[in-house]
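hey all, quick one before standup. I had two proteins in the batch that finished overnight and I want to keep them in one place so we stop losing track of which output belongs to which input. First protein below, input sequence then structure tokens straight from the run.
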Amino acid sequence: MSTAQNQAGSPETRGSVDLPYRPRRLRTSPIMRAHVRETHLHPSQLILPVFVREGAQEPRAISSMPGVVQHSMDSLKHAATEAVELGLGGFMIFGVPTTLDATGSGLVAEDGVLNQALRAVRAEVGDDILVMADLCLDEFTDHGHCGVLDDRGRVDNDATLALYAQAAVAQAEAGAHVLGPSGMMDGQVGVIRTALDEAGFIDTSVLAYSVKYASAFYGPFREAVDSSLTGDRKTYQMDPANRREAMRELELDLDEGADMVMVKPAMSYLDMVREVADHSPVPVSAYQISGEYSMIQAAAANGWIDRRAAIQESLLSIRRAGADTVLTYFATEAARWWREENGVA
């Protein structure tokens, strides 16, 4: 044995074994871990969902979603400006009207709260961020469903499509860059695409809620939009047990002209995020929904988890599963942390 070998010690004296591969070499330091990191989270990959309340003079806290508010029009514009400054990729607006009716007419009305908000935000930020609109009737109907009801109290798919087409044009006219039809009506993407094209809005994009499950984790969102729903949405949102059905929904939306597709919820359906990402030829989003947000907030408030680490890990997991972009109520915080960690003033 050479002197150098003797100084280093034999395998017996070192207590080691002869391993051809040692993956831990790539985990030895922060700089090494950063160098080989496979998945990254950037502010441009994050979309901030926001709520605007008709007639509100100041933001109103949402008790089940600590840190999230129903915005006034002024605070909404401020939030949009902040989103631009932080480099977020999108700003998805949900309207909370004070007057509801059976057909959700406020969704289509030029002076409806959501269309007013779209015009105000576009005037404030222009094309510096993607201004996105939720396209669904549930916030605007007195029964809380995502479509109009027939004489037996069931959601009428085809009658609802006619309203979605009108709403699409109204939202495009109000300035939305991207429309997010979330109602899970059969044929909604095709009807919306046709209406937009016929009205001359060929550049307005459709982010299809292609795979949206009937989830228990939507609970806090109901408070956020003052939902009037009784019952459930299981006749149009997907059964959480189904995978093949999700792929069929994806295929249909792609055939109808979806520019981007979404999986919702995200964290409880990471397998479906991966499945959709593996098969989709267009960008994939995933929505970290209200219940997923609130669980992290509640656990952190009780001191059970490290809040910042848990938030960042949750968002990375969604990206790692294959989402190109993530809708998350943590978007502004995550963007600030990214700037801090990367030395961006």
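OK second protein, same deal, sequence then tokens:
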Amino acid sequence: MSAPSLTPSKAGTPRHSPPRAAGSAPPVGRFAKNLKRNLTAHGFLIGAVVCFAVFSWYPMVREVLLAFQKTESGQTTWVGLENLATVLDDPAFWQAWRNTLLFTVLALIFGFAVPFVVAVVINEFHHGQGYLRLLVYLPVMLPPVASVLLFKYLYDPGYGLLNELLRFLHLPEQQWLQDPDLSMLSVVIASTWMNMGGAALIYLAALQGIPGELYEAAELDGAGLFRKIWHVTIPQTRLILSLMLLMQIIATMQVFVEPFLLTGGAGPEGSTTTVVYLIYQYAFNFNNYGAAAALGLLLLVLLAGFSAVYVKLSRAEDE
């Protein structure tokens, strides 16, 4: 007798399915497992998106709406560009922009160059780099208020350490935070000390990624320290330097904590009034949230436009 055929008959009898390998999960089990894994991943993703939308996107959209609205006696009305006109007519507006640009320039001179120099110096040490990295990053770990109060003590005209040092050197004492010509520089020095640790470690990581053969070739060509930095270090870290420059400009244009705590915000003769502090005044001192939102929107547009132009120029230079 012949064995029964496993192929389907002419009448349409279905073919027998091949036996399942030992240990393999059934299709329903695999589907449930994949569904559970995907639901967990999408749950975390949705949570992050919701948090970002609530704490980032919604305030931005709300600021744009407030910039064109005014609320009086509980009634909100659309006023168009009236809030922007109010801000532009304020004499403190132009002074705030001048002070902000001055702080940005000084912060780039100190806060951008000093961390890079510190990173280069630390990179030259072959022993104890871990302790040096900790020492440099320590100010970043301190609360900003504590760091500012420390500098407020150093700048004190009576018993401050800086004036004590000047007296010891028989030099004239200075009114660091009370002199309009020195107040902004004093704020920049404090801000540089507080924030340079993170940038220094980023630069140090970039420096340690440079192949040592490039420095060896430069030494064979007779290059000294400064020529190696100019011809090897800077070109090899140009991408990081460009990114940090952009981030530095965006951060310094939004300075608020240091002048607010050191000089009360405005400073002597308004010498430390910044754009963000003026936004704070409109919102919490004058209760004019529309003007505050309009000024914040103007700052946002300016920084976004600068970032777009900077990125475009960087890409054109790379090409």
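Flagging for whoever picks this up: The beta strands are 69-72, 75-78. The longest helix spans residues 27-66.
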